[in-house]
Protein 1
Amino acid sequence: MARSVLVTGVAGTFASLFARRLADLGEGAGISKVVGIDTMLPPGDLGGVKFVRADIRTPVVGKVIAVEDVDTVVHLDVNPPRRGRTGGAKELNVIGTMQLLAACQRASTVTKFILGSSTAVYGSSPRDPAMFTESLLARDGVRSGFPKDIVEVESYVRGFARRRPEVIITTLRAAQILHPSIDTPLATYFASPVLPAVMGFDPRLQFTDLNDAFAVLEQAIVKDRPGTFNIAGDGVVLLSQAARRLGRPIIPLPPFGFATAARRVLRAAGSDIPPDLHRLLTYGRVVDTSALRDIFGYDLTRTSLQTFEEFRDSLRPGVMSVVGGRA
């Protein structure tokens, strides 16, 4: 059966690129229609995607699903805040997801829901295991910012699954993408001319390759892959290793007050990061992706180090080259 797919958040670079790629696959891949929805115009040409300017926080999203006979929803409109818009990000992430799920619950046509989640759901703390599997929870909980948003979003999706057990639900928890065209907090951080770091800590980091992220989403649409799956390139990159490969100086800062001090340093350098990123830059985070390979059926093509090096090669020394947009 050819699928009619709704992609949320297409004003973001990642979602817009994915929606266009999906439309290009067309009926040969079992895709009859791709509808993109957002409150703002996408950054580029969407090709064969039908764009609808609407807010998923309103009941209008239900009308879009009904009019377009949507059977597959790909929810990519859950993102870290952009500079100066923390409150708006939380409202869009949480309230937007609640309204979208309410619309899906009423729509008898919807048979598949795919959530673009994040490994931020595991938090970052000194009590973390060596690797998080999908069944583990944040050891010290998540209290604020984007990690708290994503925990709430996943809980609403689980509630929807109980109310509509016949809908196939796939939750994809991805480590941050590193790519010159995708604006993620770590991409912004690494593109900065200096790298604030916590004295006495050298966190382990993982990254997701852009094409791997696209491919996993595509497989979740055209195949039935219910469940929750981690996505991150194999291996880890230490922050000190990343700084050496970038040729960026590390500015060591004390753990107490690191979040505030780091943002001041980066703003002085013409950059910024969300305040909740400081825990990741202190304790790091590593996830186990064996379920993606053994159950989902996808082998990642890039390790975290390969993904990082491709990103590094795209940067000119001392120049911010990340394209703006939500990711």
Note: Residues 3-180+207-232+286-301 form a domain with the Rossmann fold fold (CATH 3.40.50.720).
Protein 2
Amino acid sequence: MMADEASLAQMMTAAQNGDAAMYRALLAEVQLWLERYYRRRVPPSQLDDLVQDVLLAVHKKRATWDNRRAFYPWLAAIARYRWVDHLRKVYRSAEDELGDHDVAEDSEEEAVMARMSLERLFVHLPDKQAKAIELVKIEGLSIAEASQRTGQSESLVKVNIHRGLKKLSALVEKAE
């Protein structure tokens, strides 16, 4: 069970006053919260590095927390900014892997980049929603064909597409 807001605020206040034991306890609680926060936002192979990055940022910025304010929003802001930085780094890395090779004008570079963007967005969707969108909206299968392939009823395929597209739209609007 994770600590509540008041407990975390007390731990942070004690840590700011030099209590090393409370600071270790605070970081352990923050680590648990961050793991839960990022579990659905990044692939498992990237989770530990991102959590450690945020813990380091919390350590560096601990003096900026004001004990008259809530702790979780302060932590969430740091976590969100580090997540965005992480996504940018991952995107740049993926683009670098493609390289700057001389490519014919009729290449599929734009399609590859679009596909990479979709994959990054699909991470935020439940698997069934991502699969339904993939089959119907990208591969062009009918609802009936997607239903057969996924084992979902036709109405569930439609619901998953609707909900998935709604969530993707919200993510894109939020990023603007």
Note: Residues 1-93 form a domain with the Rna Polymerase Sigma Factor; Chain: A fold (CATH 1.10.1740.10).
Protein 3
Amino acid sequence: MEKSYIVKQISIFSENRPGRLAAIAGALRDAGINIFAFSIAEADGFGVVRALVDRPDDAHRTLTDLGFRVSFTDVIGVKMRDEPGGLSDIASILGDAGINIEYAYAYSGRDGAVLILRVDQVEDAIRQILGRGGELLEASLSR
């Protein structure tokens, strides 16, 4: 059951210089791949673009063919209240269970706010969130 909530995130590694994000976004656009959410992190002149897309395998192939280094990471998407305390609720559930949040980013859309989490114990995190009445995105990203 937990597997149905594990979302495949793509991570794209690139030099941190002007035009790289445009090249990534343009390639995905040209392939008809929709980006639901993304974040950018920087370290030592290199950037990591983490993204949730509607067709991760196609995105991986498209970007790899252009010379980008791309990998997959398992994350979960937690639907949270889009009001004060929404993030605190989720962080408390995981913290109380001893589950570490390695990184997170969020987006807010038509159906509310979603927190994307990379955690050290993904199956336990899924069980804890569902067990405490939380709601998770399906792996298919159906919204």
Note: The radius of gyration is 16 Å.
Protein 4
Amino acid sequence: MKLTKSLLVGAGLTALPTLALAQDAAPGFDEIGPYIMTTLLFCMAGFLVFFMAAGFAMLEGGLVRSKNVTMQMTKNIALFSIAAIMYWLVGFNTMYPGDFNGYFVIGGQTVLDAVGVSAADAALDYASVGSDFFFQLVFVAATASIVSGAVAERIKLWPFLIFVIVLTGFMYPISGSWQWGGGWLSEAGFSDFAGSTVVHSVGGWAALAGVIVLGPRLGKYKDGKVNPMPGSNLALATLGTFILWLGWFGFNGGSQLAMGTVGDVSDVSRIFANTNMAAAAGAVTALILTQVLYKKPDLTMVLNGALAGLVSITAEPLAPTLFGSLWIGAVGGIIVVLSIPMLDKFKLDDVVGAIPVHLFAGIWGTIAVIFYNSDASLGTQLMGIIAYGVFTFVASLIVWFILKAVMGIRVSEEDEINGLDMAELGMEAYPEFSKG
């Protein structure tokens, strides 16, 4: 059986409680019930996390200028599709290689259970291979989506997609195996329930490297001033945020990795409630803080505040109380409001705020684990944060620099001014508007 996150977070897979309905069930129901229910959890949670791909696309489409919207849509559907293929080809079995001691083992192709697999041949102590593979796959696609928004409006399509191949097929699975695949960080006691570091910080580090190598958009920083470049559609960005919020219930709830007992199902519902509370607190905190700092609320900050709250609670969405989730998410909202202007001071042009949301709030969420998980220590959490940061940032820098040297990663000044939709794709998202 593949070593999976359930063994690392302590999720039990005991038999279902005896119910009146179970008396009429076929023999062996107590044994196959947990397998069926956990497989169902993975499928349902996977559907929700898959829908986050639409959330990222809508958020990015709303926060970029109209001349670059088609490019963002193309990048998002392409990156998910590439992630699906690469995770099948090498990623899944690299991330979950079975019992091993070390840093990584490059795996082979994923093989599903046989058609109509019998109970005797199924992994009754866990779930179907197909459901496990699909649930893990949608996580890696989310990591690539984080990079897409940060490097928007000036990157070429094909170099970006080549980076996605490396990120989803190798970088993310290798580092993911350290924690969720039973690797050295898991053995050391590092704790990351649903991926504040394993998923979100990894995407944030990769995005930061890309932003540094690319440089800022033309005209963003001029004469010592930061020139705002408003997005094309804040309604679309808001829709994307709500879709991401919805998908996060699958992201965190599915990471319980078991639904075969009363305790498991109750824990999933607890995770839902805590996840929602953290998002709400992040949004409200950003709303109030922007009113105080800028005399008017800033919608884009509120949207990112909600997302930062979600990222913050992702490392430990089960153990905290509702109040605990509230203050953890609220700190995430503060981080976003304060760190987005800080990036501008360093002339790091992150178009959608992906680095503050996913990297900075991801680091915070990973540290916050120690307040509610007695098995976690600050030293071990910091060790994990540093390990993921060094590996992902350095590896990403290397890949970005190679792509820059070999084929170039940034469009010409003329193409950037005219917009990537026409320069890279030859089609516009809003052709009637541009000709209006």
Note: The beta strands are 221-222, 225-226.
